[in-house]
Every structure is written in structure tokens, then in C-alpha cells.
Amino acid sequence: MNARIKWLDHMSFVGEAGSGHSVVMDGAPENGGRNLGPRPMEMVLLGLGGCTAFDVVTILQKSRAPVEDCVVEISAERADAIPAVFTKIHVHYIVKGAGLQDKHVKRAVDLTAEKYCSVSMMLKSSVELSYDYELEDTSR
Known about the structure:
The strands form two sheets. This protein has a three-stranded antiparallel beta sheet with strand order 1-2-3, with no helix packed on it. A three-stranded mixed beta sheet has the order 4-5-6, with helices on one face. The chain folds into two domains: 1-38, N-terminal domain of TfIIb; 40-137, GMP Synthetase, Chain A, domain 3 (2-Layer Sandwich). 17% of the residues are buried. The chain contains three helices and six strands; from the N terminus they run βββαββααβ. It has helices spanning 40-62, 102-116, 118-123, and strands at 3-9, 12-17, 22-26, 69-78, 86-97, 128-137. Helix 1 (40-62) crosses helix 2 (102-116). Helix content is 31%, strand content 36%.
């Protein structure tokens, strides 16, 4: 796996993934950016959310649970000093499905948090990670 980051101008950069996909990152205007894309630290949260959502949906599908939707909301706190690393990250899942059972969602969340999500595994040694979920049975 590889990536290439190229400076465009001001504080804008384009990140090119080995898969051929690109994303523009930019700084806040007060830091010389033009607000054209997410900040690099936001990309870390997006990577975490994408990785763990992928796991939860895959685990539910493999267990033949009737998952219809999965949204991951992430909130994070950063240190006040430089480097302003993440100190706490909370991951909240909203999972929907007709007849979806709590035990299936709990298992999927536990497995992604404890075993499968590579991003979580990297972050948990330096960040306080917490997880919770809500389940919406759409058959009601």
C-alpha cells in the first residue's frame, strides 16, 4: 500500500492513493488555507470511520443479519499543546434493519473494536477510544 501527497498551492495538497483515488486536503484560512478540503487530522477520523463501518456492515452481512443502513458518527478531542494529537475519540454507530437484533450489532461493534479495524488498532495505543451504538428496527 502506498500514497503520494503533492503540494498544490497555499496550504492545499492532493493525496493520491495507490488505488488511483485522490483527495484534496487543505488548511483552515487562519493557517493559510482556503478551506478547499478536509484537514489532515479529519482524514484520520474519516479513515477510522470508513474502516470500522466497513467491518460492521461486512460482519452483519456475513451473519445474514438484515442490515439496511449504517452510519458512524465520530467525535474527538485533541491536546491543547503541539503536537495537537487526538486524546479521546468516541465512535457512535447507528445501525438500521428490519428485524435486526441487538446481539448481532453488539457482536459486530465488539469485533471491529477489538479485532478487525486496523485504524482502531493503530490508534488505541495512544488514544482513549470508546464505542457505542443504537439500533433501529425498521420493521416497526
